[in-house]
Each structure stands twice: as C-alpha cells, then as structure tokens.
Amino acid sequence: MSAIIKIKPLGFPWETQDPFLFCVHHADAYPKGNDQMGPDASLSGRAIGNDFTIKDGWRMYHGSKVPGFPAHPHRGFETVTIATKGLIDHSDSLGAAARFGNGDVQWMTAGKGVQHSEMFPLLSKEKDNPLELFQIWLNLPQKHKLVPPHFGMLWNETIPREVVKDVNGKTTEVMIVAGKLGDKTAPTPPPHSWANDADHDVAIWTINMEPGATFTLPKASKGAKRSIYFYKGELLQVEDQSINAYKAVELQADQEAVLTNGKEPGFLLMLQGKPIGEPVAQYGPFVMNNQAEIQQAMQEYQRTQFGGWPWPNHEHVHAREKGRFAIHADGKVEEKG
C-alpha cells in the first residue's frame, strides 16, 4: 500500500495541514547593498510597499528602502523562520531584537499579541546578497492562544544534523528543527508550543539529497499528518511515483516512504504533526478559534498596539557592523559574531 495520499503543485504560500497554518518560501538573488543596506539598484518600476513580483531576481516585499516586512502584529500562533541563506533583522514591540541567518532559526510564539519587523539587510557592498528562508506558521491550541509572547533562537551551530548514507554511499543530510531522527533530537521548542509535547510528534526538517541518493522517511505515530515539499531539484521519486520540482506530497505518516533523488541535488522541507483539531478563524495576522475572538484581537491591537513600537522606525535594521546576535525581552544577550 502506497504511503502517498495526494500530490499537488506548490503555490504561494504553500498549503499545509493542521497543526500548521501555511508556509512561505522566499528566495531572492539580491544585488550588492548600498549605504542604507538596501539594493544598490534602481527601484523604479516596482510597487514599493507591496512588491511581491520577482524583478531582476528579487523583491522588496513591503520594504521601501531595505527589503522585508516592516512592523506588523501577530496573535494566536507561532512563526518558525528558517534562514538558510542571508540575514534577517528582527525587532519587536517587547524591545527584543536579533540578527540571524545562514542556517539559524527563530521560533516566535506570538501568543496574546506582539508586533515585529523582519527586514533583510544587504550588508555586503562588494558582492551579491542572496537570501533564502522559510516562514512556517504553527497554530496554538485555544488554551495557549493568549500566553505571553516569546521568541527563542536556534543557532545554526546548535541544530542537529543527521547524515544518512544509502547502500551506494550517496548521502542525505537532514536538519532537525523540530522532532527527532535516529539519535538526534531538535532543541526544545518554546514552552507553550504544540511542538513542546513529544506526543504531538511535530517534526520540521530540511532534507538535502545528493544526486542519486535514496532516503527512507521513518514511520511517525498514528494520527500524525505529514507533508513533504520538493522545492528545488530535477526529479524526485516518492515510492513508485516520480515528481518534478515545486510539488507537495501528502503522506501517510505512520508508513515509511522511500525517496530517491534525480540527477541534481534535491532540496525538501518536511512538516509533520498531530492535528490540534480545533476551529480556525483567521484574519490576516490574527489566528483564533472564532470570529468574536478575531474582533477582540483587532480591538485590542487598535487600543494597545500590543505594546507599541520602541524602535526609531517601522523598517528598523541594526548597524551594518553587527554580527549575529539576539537581545531578549528579559535582557538576555546572545552574541554569535
């Protein structure tokens, strides 16, 4: 019996299954930076403030000078941001800040409400500044939707990788952001996350396969949902079916699934977990259980701004000379250089 449930093309954003809400994949070939850490290129012809069309290989998104997403609110869910290439500047309404990237992951519990900005500073003035990231929205159960906001850093150096060789010596490397594989277990998720309970079997993995490599996804627990997203490569065989790039495959999580890569390096994301199984009411950046709670979220944001904005502007970026770092709302400082 095949483990495949459904195969579908990827859109924007990527469709996900409960307990996830959706996933977006940003890949931009940014040019050299200017003095303001924006693109050293003309912005003419772009819909500045709402530039989601790839032009010359990159987008400004909602940024006006620096690409990215200026201050905006969230409530009722979590964001997991995997920055595989390039750097992201985080600032938030709690006074916390970070610069992370090149393999780092930020896991933020919005809870009862937070504003944050996610800007993409182009630090190098001498060479191009490519960026690639995934942002995954993971729902919170009703009992945790109004917990205090929290963010944690999973630094590249602390995220476990499992390297698996097949019978032909071809390798597959799995970065374990959540869950476990073999004897490798991901860092502990935030305290109120659905992923914090091992019984929920939440897994977030990036999977990089050598040309011709074969890798078997192990069985998960019964009741879990599993999707893989083949976002870059030539061809991937999933069980007995061959798919080309930019396809998603829903799988039976409690069955093994054999993946065989084609002639080019293959890149996948896997999302897995037991469903929360509660009603979802969403309005933009607010995700609650019913429309009355959405109305309450909007009213509270209008009244409180979820703590206001303590930074000089809504597109705040950190100093060019700063390395990777995090300053938490409780004053804890992490410097990674």
How are the elements arranged and paired?
Elements: E1 4-9, E2 14-15, E3 20-30, E4 68-74, E5 77-85, E6 87-92, E7 97-101, E8 104-109, E9 114-119, E10 129-139, E11 150-154, E12 161-165, E13 171-178, E14 180-181, E15 184-185, E16 203-209, E17 214-217, E18 225-232, E19 236-238, E20 241-243, E21 247-252, E22 257-261, E23 266-273, E24 281-283, E25 286-288, H1 291-304, E26 325-327, E27 333-335
Antiparallel strand pairs: 1-21, 2-3, 3-10, 4-9, 5-8, 5-10, 6-7, 6-9, 7-26, 8-11, 12-13, 13-16, 14-15, 16-23, 17-22, 18-21, 18-23, 19-20, 19-22, 24-25, 26-27
Report on this model:
The chain is mainly beta and 337 residues long. It contains one helix and 27 strands. The chain has one helix at residues 291-304, and strands spanning 4-9, 14-15, 20-30, 68-74, 77-85, 87-92, 97-101, 104-109, 114-119, 129-139, 150-154, 161-165, 171-178, 180-181, 184-185, 203-209, 214-217, 225-232, 236-238, 241-243, 247-252, 257-261, 266-273, 281-283, 286-288, 325-327, 333-335. The strands form six sheets. Strands 1-21-18-23-16-13-12 form a seven-stranded antiparallel β-sheet, with no helix packed on it. Strands 2-3-10-5-8-11 form a six-stranded antiparallel β-sheet, with no helix packed on it. Strand 24 (281-283) and strand 25 (286-288) form a beta hairpin. The longest helix has 14 residues, at 291-304. The radius of gyration is 20 Å and the shape is globular. The mean pLDDT is 97. InterPro entries: Pirin (IPR012093), Pirin_C_dom (IPR008778), Pirin_N_dom (IPR003829), RmlC-like_jellyroll (IPR014710), RmlC_Cupin_sf (IPR011051). It comes from Imperialibacter roseus. Residues 205-307 form the Pirin C-terminal domain. Residues 61-138 form the Pirin N-terminal domain. Belongs to the pirin family.
